[in-house]
Amino acid sequence: MHTKEEKMQAFGRFLDVLDALRTNCPWDKKQTNESLRPNTIEETYELCDALIKNDIPDICKELGDVLLHICFYAKIAEEKEQFDMADVCNALTRKMITRHPHVYHPSQIEAENPKPLPYVPENGTDVEVTKVNSVGQVLENWEQIKLKEKDGNESVLSGVPDALPSLIKAYRIQDKARNVGFDWEDRQDVWKKVHEELAELEVELNKEDKEKSTEELGDFLFSVINAARLYKLNPDNALEKTNRKFINRFNYIEAHSIKIGKPLKDMTLGEMDALWNEAKKTLKD
């Protein structure tokens, strides 16, 4: 692994290359926040894909692509004299110190070289230390500090981005509500809600009321996501693993149909089911 100095040198070298490309490359010259945004979304999903596959070389590569976009936006802002990469890093450092009072004393927020606790000021006086006993307490403190940063004008859920995929957004909404005490007292109680929402969905489906069915389907999915959260399962990761499992097994069926020269549309459901079960036994999901 590299030393801190080597890391800083590598980052500086990267920034120098970005500056040169912005000046000399026709494509890089014309990029704006608006033109880069779609690529940023794509790069973020590619990183997430590498993460769920645990493909270490690919994770390293995709992290670089995401970092390029972060620095590119900062470069564009610098050209407009709005902010630069140092401002981005300093703002982030201040936020991390502020939101971790159990690690840093508030006196270190603007310090050039922040010192974690136990910290003794130069005058030798004692400092008040915030103590936490669990991850839950850390998250609760985080949300409370965020509200104070906005002078109480920001709502608990306003920090959930509108553009988040719906499944992830539901999880974040529920998690943020939990951090201020709005949650089930006993996680097992959530199953009553899940069954209740499923029953309401079945009623509307039997009525063939599409609008109401859509509403009840949303309520049911929200309750299932809530159950996953309460049992410390990530529903997005779980669904993605199932997606990949389905793709692998279906590809197995398709490959067999090609091998025997029988198109999928000509195979019976029984034949496909048999191959599906064969794929379950053969493939490593």
Explain this structure to me?
There is one protein chain. This protein is an all-alpha fold. It has 4 domains: 4-83, Orthogonal Bundle (Helix Hairpins), CATH 1.10.287; 92-148, no CATH class; 166-233, Helix Hairpins (Orthogonal Bundle); 237-282, no CATH class. 67% of the residues lie in helices and 0% in strands. The chain contains 11 helices and no strands. It has helices at residues 4-24, 26-29, 33-53, 56-79, 85-98, 135-149, 166-179, 190-207, 210-230, 235-260, 269-282. Helix 10 crosses helix 11 (269-282). It is extended. The model has no long low-confidence stretch (mean pLDDT 90).
Q: What fraction strand?
A: under 5%
SSE sequence, one letter per element: HHHHHHHHHHH
Report the CATH superfamily of the largest domain.
MazG-like
User: What is the tally of beta strands?
Assistant: 0
By CATH, the architecture of the largest domain is named Orthogonal Bundle
Shape: extended
Biggest beta-sheet profile: none
CATH fold-level assignment of the largest domain: Helix Hairpins
- What's the CATH first level of the largest domain? Mainly Alpha
Total number of helices: 11
Instruction: Summarize model confidence as the mean pLDDT.
Output: 90
By helix and strand content, what is the structural category?
mainly alpha
- Cα radius of gyration in angstroms: 26 Å
Low-confidence stretches are none
- How much helical structure, as a percent, in the residues? 55-70%
First-last Cα distance = 32 Å
InterPro entries: MazG-like_dom (IPR004518), NTP-PPase_MazG-like_C (IPR048011), NTP-PPase_MazG-like_N (IPR048015), NTP_PyrPHydrolase_MazG (IPR011551)
Catalytic activity: ATP + H2O = AMP + diphosphate + H(+)
Keywords: Hydrolase
Domain NTP pyrophosphohydrolase MazG-like: 31-103, 192-250
